[in-house]
Amino acid sequence: MTKLASPELETVLAFDEICLKENLGEPHFVALRSDSKRPAYKGWQSKPIAVPNLAATLKRHDLGLLPASIGVVVIDNDTGGQAYFDYLERELGDALIAITPSSSDVEGRGHAWFLCRNAHLVGAQRVWFNGRQVGEFRSSNAQIRLTEKALKMLIESERLKDSFLLTPTTADRLYEVTGSKPKLKQEIGLGDDRELPLSSDLAAQMIADFRSTNDRSSTISSWCWRLYSKGFSPAEIHRYLMDVPEVSL
Question: Are 217 and 249 a contacting pair, CB within 8 Å?
């Protein structure tokens, strides 16, 4: 397989340093197959590649980034051309970090990078311009391939370096500007903790289940739903689970 244009390790580390220095967040990288835009491994959303493992990854795979990890939403512009980029810059210029080329390097295609206060709420959805679909969002649970050229443009962008001076846009503003229907992922509030004790029978059963389980994640999930169905708030459920030594949330 021929690697498309993955960046050199030194370039990736320079990008990582800028993001951490300006408190954008810690970049979450993902290995991509060199013959497609697909992640190389299952469960990539919850298993980002750590910086010490990047060198080995770059030898075998192309590199992707989870935009939401640094508080960014990327708009993939497939068919809108320069006119669409100009429109986005007029409407969202205070949050625009950079415009980078597509990994295909086709003229008129590319990606617009925007700071967003709640980027993790923006899912992969279509975006519209003048009544037609021109691309899609890349943010939560979505990745974007990093090329050497694009990453160098981001590093050299004054707007990225001065990002803390900008007023980041919000998710609902992005949906408004791009003509997409706002299907934001709702954050679940913890609710009130009434400090109610769990019954001795339930507490004993919960501890026994965790001590005997071979699937900790599944047991946590089942107990969360079981307690929620009994009327306990997420805050209370969290406290009950924290009281079980085997859980270690």
Answer: no
